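Supplementary Note 3. Input sequence used for the single-chain structure prediction.
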Amino acid sequence: MATSSPVTAAIPVRRVRIAVVVRYTALVLLTVLFVAPLVFMAVTSFKTQADAIAPSPQWIPHHPTTGGYRAVESASGGEMARWFVNSVLAALGQAVLVVATASLAAYPLARMRFPGKRAVFAVVVSTLFVPSVILIVPNYVVVSRLHWLDSLPAIVIPGAATAFGVFYMRQFFLGLPHELEEAAALDGAGRLRVFLQVVLPLARPSLVTLALLSFLTNWNDFLWPVYVLFSNDKLTLPAGLATLQNANAVRYDILMAGAMIATVPVLALYAFAQRYVVEGVARSGVKG
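The predicted structure, written as discrete structure tokens, is reproduced below.
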């Protein structure tokens, strides 16, 4: 019986090691590519005005200072804290509404039978192909007639229901075993009780993931708040930071300090919810 020589046996092992090295090298390069802008933004926020506009990039500030953060408050007219609170309230409100509407709409589309279910789902999914910018004028007209302009509901309610949220939650509900609902029904639980006490607790990772995505969407939204918010004290962070850029076109230390104030809460939130996001994405595979 022929046996492989030590040399030939070592070749596959060597190839595996080379593949591992290449893979981790690529991951390190991608990490540096994505993290470097954040690091440079943080570094610039601690620079002086002269260092921030220096021709050669400085990864370590020559004269570290927190003057940019102190100048943000004065440059914003004392409204930076209000912008931050407005963004938090708007993002949290929209995240809660999106989770509620998406889960309530997705559950019947995934687990119940009724005439026209496939047609309804097809219509919902088809709206994903409609560019959001097309809806600015209709949404503005609706918000104006409801007298919500320059108020918190104007940046919360229009995004309270999303086709992506319905699609995402439906995919998770499709993967749940029917035996769980059947067992609860045998114990006398109605459809609503099964949904609230059996299905939703199992869907926690997907709900957290959807809430985080909705939070980030509202938190980073710039175009819509610019259209519907007019007062300086009603602005959200993206719209407020834009006014700093217009008033201080070359004050990169102030702009980067404001960007850091807007970025740190998002990074902290993602770090907290990371395990839910990974589990939610893993358990919400695309099913027919």
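The chain has a mean pLDDT of 85. The CA atoms of residues 29 and 211 lie 30 Å apart.
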